[in-house]
Specification:
Largest sheet: 8 strands, mixed
Radius of gyration: 18 Å
Strand order of the largest sheet: 3-2-1-4-8-6-9-7
CATH architecture: Alpha-Beta Complex
Structural class: alpha/beta
Number of helices: 10
CATH class: Alpha Beta
Order of helices and strands: HHEHEHEHEEHEEEHHEEHH
Helix content: 25-40%
């Protein structure tokens, strides 16, 4: 696909859309997924260059949770990473994310798993939306929609293909049930910095254990408690390889691990 010439479109973004945005951060968590990490980090560095054209600095923070494949050696070689944290063992998703967030700076924080590849222009579009909607604390994608295409999408920054403007199909997910319930969009999303001043990923219970997961659902309830508003879109496009667990979920066969997560989560937050 031929990408649009974004240079001209971005010329006046600082003046028209990003007057109050000088810096943002992106916290990436990686573990044992070198090939996808390579694509994901490269796509963020591409977004970093686009934001620079808008007068916005992106601080890229990568936390590797003790990978034993090629991930750590490859990450060391990447000049576009501003802060690299290499753990010698898997500390769990919650501890890994919290480590990266300690180094955050700027008005917004992107959170992303390393096996996700960003569609070109997405970060500009998402910041633009957040600036226009100050009531939203966290914006991200509904990750239950799939595509069989790869590398065939881009965001038109002006108008954004009706993906992130007021004509988009959006949903506010206070208490809307997905796999479990209220889910902060941590695998691919943008947060206002204030969220992390009041909320942290739990490391004091099972959500902090390596391999447990569902820390995003727990974090979502923390956000709800602090009255932060989450918004997800059904039509934001990003690339994430289909996993065995997702295929299992799509076939309506929820595994025992998910059932245990649901039971623990419900008990902790008072759901039946």
């Amino acid at each position: 696909m031929i990408y649009p010439d974004l240079n001209k479109e971005l010329e006046n973004y600082k003046e028209h859309y990003f007057k109050s945005v000088d810096e943002v951060s992106c916290v990436v968590l990686s573990w044992e997924n070198w090939e996808d990490t390579r694509l994901g980090v490269a796509s963020i560095i591409q977004e970093k260059a686009l934001l620079a054209k808008c007068g916005v600095k992106l601080k890229l923070i990568v936390v590797d949770n003790g990978s034993k494949d090629k991930s750590q050696e490859w990450l060391k070689e990447q000049a576009g990473i501003d802060k690299l944290i290499l753990n010698d063992k898997n500390l769990g998703i919650s501890a890994g994310r919290n480590l990266g967030l300690e180094h955050r700076s700027g008005k917004y924080v992107f959170s992303m798993d390393s096996d996700i590849t960003v569609v070109r222009g997405s970060y500009v579009a998402m910041i633009k939306y957040m600036e226009a909607h100050p009531e939203i604390a966290n914006l991200g994608a509904d990750h239950l929609t799939t595509t069989n295409t790869y590398g065939e999408h881009t965001y038109q920054i002006t108008g954004i293909n009706h993906v992130l403007d007021d004509k988009a199909t959006a949903k506010n997910i206070y208490g809307v049930w997905g796999i479990i319930d209220m889910c902060a969009l941590t695998h691919y999303g943008i947060f206002r910095k204030e969220v992390f001043d009041k909320c942290k990923f739990s490391t004091e219970d099972v959500f902090g254990l390596p391999g447990w997961g569902a820390e995003d659902n727990d974090f979502g309830q923390q956000m709800r408690k602090e009255s932060f508003k989450i918004q997800s879109f059904n039509d934001i496009v990003y690339y994430h390889k289909r996993s065995a667990s997702l295929s299992t979920f799509r076939n309506a066969k929820i595994d025992d691990g998910v059932q245990k997560r649901r039971a623990y989560y419900n008990k902790k937050w008072g759901f039946k």
